[in-house]
Every structure is written in structure tokens, then in C-alpha cells.
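# step 3/5: fold
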Amino acid sequence: MAGIKRKSPAANAHSGNKDTSKKAKFEKSALKNTPKPELAVHDGKFVKKAKVKGESGDSIEASTSKDGDAFSVQEGADLTQPGKASTLASLDGCDLATSSREAHAKQKALAKERKAAKPNADIIDRSKKLWEKLRLKSHVEKEERKKLVGELFEIVTGRVKDFVFKHDSVRVIQCAIKYSNMEQRRMIARELKGEFKTLAEGKYSKFLIAKLLEKGDPEIRDIIISEFYGHVRRLINHPEAAWMLDDTYRAVATPEQKSRLLCEWYGPEFSIRGLKPEGTKTTELSAILTESPEKRKPIMDHLETQINQIIQKKLTGFTMLHDAMLQYFLACKAGSTESSDFLGHLKPDATLREGEEADNADLLKNLAFTKSGSRLVSLAFAYGTAKDRKLLLRPYKDTIEMMATDVNAHHVLLAALAVIDDTKLTSKSIFGELLPSNDSLPDKVLNLAGDVRARTILLYPFAAGSKWLLEAHTLERLSELYAIRSATSKKDPDTRLHELARAVEPHLLTAIAARASDFASFSFGLQFMGEVLVGAPEVELDKRKEALTEVAGLAQQILDFTPVAPGPETHDATGKCDLTTHGKNMLKTLVQGGKFDPKTKKVVPVEPPLGFADMFWDQVKDNLIQWATGPGSFVVVGLVEAGGFLRKTEVLNTLNAGRNKLEAAAGPPINDMEKKRGKNSAKPPGKGKGNAGTRILLEKLYSR
């Protein structure tokens, strides 16, 4: 086996190079005065106290064996050749393994002496032993851990600053914080008061701040953040402190603290005074510039410089940066050179070829996933030209699915759908990435329909203004974009939605036809089917008929709340999964053949007609009385009122045959005189106040 070279090989007599150092001279003199042992080769190794003859010459490579008694010789080495024995002689009878152990022992002893000479060496060593026990989470009982933590706090109390600035001892404090109670955490924070800016700049100590802020205690939060005031410009440009400052700003700071920190991006005056110039009443940049117009140029120049510095460093993920960029853009006048130049920096290079990534692609992607950043990108879509919008959408190609499910990024996709006139571009770039063209399409649509964010992207062309689909802040964001697009977009909004619906509907109908029972198993799925099936009816008539047939076959299961397959575990905005409500609403909409318009108080039928009423009647005619007296009574009302339904007489005749059951379910009659006298408390057993839908059906029977 080949060995390794010694750290200080014997001088080579043939090399012509001489080692004149004191160490080399000392080794040579020692070798001359030491009797040379004889060594013998045995199984590729040579052993002490054996005789080997030879002449001085080139050295050979050798290393100690595990037992410390024998030395392995390089494979192929011939100890009888000239020059080999001198190297063996240079080993000088020493036990190399023993010498190595002694050398390491001396090194450890010296290191121990050096550590012992440092301040607080004893208490740090003691605390590290406690830390070694505490960090073994699964091996320490609760009571023993409590005892160890108490002992650890006895050591560190009053000496926290001595621990936190050393890479090894700071771990002890982090461990103490991990298992401490809130009062112990506050004690540590109070002891470190005045040092948090320095701690944030430390490679290891910055994690201590994260540990302290982890539980969200207001006192600790205020102590730490107050020490960042006046130092934001320095900290945001520091390689270690920048991330800690931004994480604190994003996840911990109160709105007022965020404003104070962000204001320091506006200029030195804000850093010195801590919040804002004298006389201003707000921290919004546009409002500050309105109150002090003479300060517009220095503030905007300073803010632009700060933004460019961070972007040039490729630190584009900072939430503070995104907030600052939004403040800058909102302070620009719409259509001004200042605004156009800023949007120009966001646009990717138009000369890039397909597959090449722009330099600012990371900036655009990071902007999409924060609240301020997504609003900025949405405004860029709204104010941009047709060419600008195409360039802005390009970098998101590989992240469309991730964006669709994100609380902020899905606003960017909605903005693109709302303002881009080229619907072929948005259909290919957004729907083309979300919906595969293979057999996995039904599963993919089912998963997206069960996500509270992603479903808004698929259903936006069908229900752009629905409050049940879009959250309040999303509707507010879209309203802002609608006001802008009236001046920057040429296409009629209804035409744009219709074209988008026609592009995406074939894929959605295919998914519904293949997995209708799964969609019917959860509330979001029922809403999803209802919107898609009354969408753009002139598209894919065969696929629509197939999907409607599948839904009609599930009508009884929807009424009985017995889905044939489990769906995604999702809930509506109230936190409930009410299949009854969503199921009967969907069926009623399909039976009526259109959506109910609250303005005109009428149903707006789609063209060509869906024809679902006939499908539904074929499924429920044997159980019509059950539907008419139960939760599905209003679905039957819709069936009776449906326009173009030619079998209405059959429905009324069947209802008339079961009039007694209808009257029992409807409850006692309530006229105006009884309401005034308060005599409407009579209730049939188990019927409550009666079924309102059943009463409407009885009125229709009486009026025949």
C-alpha cells in the first residue's frame, strides 16, 4: 500500500537543495548521535529491530500503521536499492504513532491554556457543557431540562454581552432563549440594549436577534427596532445586517415602525429626525411631497439612488426595496418623463432571444410575491404600452403556477388578464402554463379549482366582478386598474372577457366531463362547475353537452350530500363547506339556463340554450316530491320558471298529485292580519316555519 510523504522529509542528497533552517540542522545532528536500528520487511511492512543494509540515497514514502509498531512501505519499493536505507535510518528508531499522539496532546494542552487565559473562560466552558446537554432534545427529560435552563441562566445573567460576540458562546445564549420563558427573554433583551445594531452586523450574532423576535413580544420588538432608527441606510447596505433588517421590517414591525424605517430612504433629514420633516402629517411620499413641494427633487433623487444601489447588488428580494419602489412610482406624475423612465427600468430588454433571461428577471419575479411589489407590477401593466406588457409578462413564464396560488402574485396575473388587449398572448402565457394538454388536465384543473387563489385566475373570464370569487382587497386592486385601462387599453372589457372565456373553456369542460363527481364533492368545485357551464355557450357544444349530462346524473347525490369521491379539503370564505347551498344554487342556475341579474331582477338566459332543464327532469321526475319538499325546492321552482322548457306541464301535474305533502311541508298559511296580530307561531311538527320554496310551488299550482 502506498504511504504518504512526511511533512519534513530528509534532505535529498541528489537534489542539490539544502535545508539550512535551524530545525533541519537540529534534526541532522540528532540523527548522527542516535543509534540506527535495523528494519525488516514483512508483508509489505517493515518492523523495528530488524537489520536492513543499504547506501544513502533517495527517500521513500512511509506511514505508520494502526498498531503503531509497523510502517507500511510504498508499493514496489525495494529496500535493497541504494538510497533506501538512509531513509529508513532517518526514521531514527522513533515510534511515529507515539510521537504524533504526543504532539497532538501538546497542541491540545496549549490550546486549552490559551482558552483558559481568556476572560470568562471558566463560565463559558461551563455554559457550553450545559448547552451540549440541552441541545440533545430527545434525550433530556422535561424536569431535567428545566433544571439545566435555570442553571444556564444563573451563569449568563449579567454577563450576556460577554457571550454574544463570540461565535461559539453565542450559541449558548440562543439555546437559553429557545427554552426560556418570556420574562427571561426580556431580561436578555434588556441586558443587550444598545448593542442590537452591532449584533445585526455580526455573522453569527444576527441569529440571536431572530431568536428574540420569534415570539413576537412587544417590549422586545420595540427595544430592537428602536435601535435601527437612524441607521437604515448603513444596515440595508451591510452584507449581514441587510437581511435581518428586512426580515424584521417585513414580519415583526408595526405599521408605524415600518413607516419610520422606510422614511429613512427619503434622505438624511429623515434619518436624523427619525420620522419625517417638521410640519408633515404623513409618511406617504406623495403626501410629503404635496406638503413640501420644494423638497421634491432632493428626496426623489436620494430615493432613486438608494433603489439603484440595492438593485445593482442583486438584493432584489427585500420587502423594503419593493415598498420604496412603489412609493417612488406613486409619487411620479402619470405620463411624466419621471414615470416613464422608472417603468423603463422594469422592462426586460426587447432584443433578447427566446429562452434568454433578462438581467432584471429576478427583480420582476421577486416583486410579484410581495404586496407592494405586486401592486407596482400591476400598475406597470396598466400604464404600459402593448409592447411593454408583452415584455413584462415574459419573465413569469416558468413561475405562473406558483404565482396563481400565492396571496400577492395572483394579483399580477389578474392584472395581465384585465388590461392586456392581446388575449391570445395572455391565454397562451397564463392558461397555457396552468393547463396541460395531456391526460393530467382533469387532475390539474381539479386541484386549481380547490385553491382559493388559483380558481380566481381560471374563473376571472366568467365572473370578473363577483364578490364570492374575489376578496375585497382584490376587487379594490382591480378597480384601480380598470380606471387606468380606460385610457391605456383599446379593447372593450366585455369583449376581452369573452375572448378569454372562449380560449380557456374547452379545457375546463373537458376536466368537468371527466371528473364531475369529484368537482361535486366540495363547495369550490360546485361553484366552479356552475360558472363554467354557463360561460361562453357557443364554444365546444359537444363538450358542454357531455359535461351537463354528467352533472345531471349527479343531481340526486348532490341533494343527498353523498359525493361519490372525496374532493380537496377546502372551505369557503366563512370556513364552512356547505354542499347543500352551493349544490342547489348551481343546479338552479343550470336549470334556469342563465344567471340572475340583481339589477333587472331577471334571469339572463345564455344563447344557445343549455338544455339542462330536460336533462334534470329526466333524472328527478321519480323523486320530484322529495325535491319539492326538501332543500332542493328552489331548484324545482327554477325548473317551473325556466324559459324554453317544454315539459313544464308534466312537472306541475306531478306536483299536483302530491299536493298534500307539499302543503304539509309549506306550513300553515300566513296572511297579513295574522302577521300583525303575531299569530304566526303555529308550526307543524318538525317543519319549523315551513319550506319557502314549497310555498311558491303551491302558489303556482293554485294559480293554474
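# step 4/5: annotate
The longest helix spans residues 493-519.
# step 5/5: archive (pending)
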